[in-house]
Amino acid sequence: MPITKKYKKIVIGNWKQNPTTHEAAKNIVKHIKKTASELKKTITVLCPPFVFLQNLGKGEQPFSKGAQDVSVFESGSHTGEVSAEMLKDCEVEYTIVGHSERRKAGETDAMVASKIKALHFAGVTAVMCIGEDNRDSGGQYLDTLKNQIKHSLAGVEKKNLSHLVVAYEPVWAIGATQAMSGADVHETAIYIKKVLADLFGHEYVVKVPILYGGSVTFRNAGEIVKEGHVDGLLVGRESINPEGFNEILKVVDAL
Ligand code: PGA
Catalytic: 120? Predict the structure, then answer.
């Protein structure tokens, strides 16, 4: 499901390295399915670990399947890697790239760019994460964001921007106790759009959804999306708590 006139918002659940069993994964899906099927304007994307992708079911579902990473390679001798084509074959529509936890483990902007191109080649939408480690009063973080965007999108074709989602995730707000304020999200989202427009031209980037991620709960989800003027959310911890995640979906859909 791509963002369209009907589906205006997108909420992505990044399960990270959770849960431990197939049974528990099925249980999360079971509890989210009903709420997701009742949404009028919001796309739900569930990103479990690779091994649970099949637990999300086959065929028509009230949510889209997502993955948390992808190989830069098409196929071959790359132990442990999963290709974009394999994900496509599992009906994956969205894939997170450049998450700060992967960047910490060595993923560079150049690798993110290769992954995005591999996904585009397979027809999968890339959810490109960017975010500064710290917010300094001198505005250095804006340069960090600009460089991440520029280098992570190097070589990405304009015509494939319809398969791009940008997730702004300030690293200091991930796994924290408090999210960023809606006003600050708004200011940063405008900046991100400007950087994208300077790179590709306004007409190509107006439709690129900008999401916020970092300590999102049902309590702050409404304020962040409304005041932040973003197209949705990337949710970590609360995405494996079906009650909390369902509330986030409802709050966003009611805006
Ligand atoms: P969090 O994680 O919601 O647990 O802060 C967000 C993320 O890492 O995508």
Answer: no
Q: CA 148, CA 28: separation in Å to the nearest integer? A: 33
Beta bridge partners of 92: 65
Q: 174 CB under 6 A from ligand 1?
A: yes
Q: Which atom of ligand 1 lies nearest, measured to the CA of 215?
A: 5
Exposed, middle or buried, 30 (CB in 10 Å: 0-12/13-18/19+)? exposed
User: What is the arithmetic mean of pLDDT over 245-250?
Assistant: 98
The DSSP symbol for 210 reads E
Reported as a pLDDT band with limits 50, 70 and 90, residue 4 is low
User: Of 101, 132, 169, 238, which residue is the catalytic one?
Assistant: 169
Which candidate, 95, 94, 179, 190, places its Cα nearest to that of 142? 190
Q: Could you tell me whether strands 64-67 and 92-97 are parallel, antiparallel, or unpaired per DSSP bridges?
A: parallel
Report which of 79, 86, 78 is spatially closest to residue 53, judged by C-alpha positions.
86
Q: What number of residues does the chain have?
A: 255
Report field, pTM of the whole predicted structure over 0.85: yes
For 19, phi then psi, to 5°, come to -85, -165
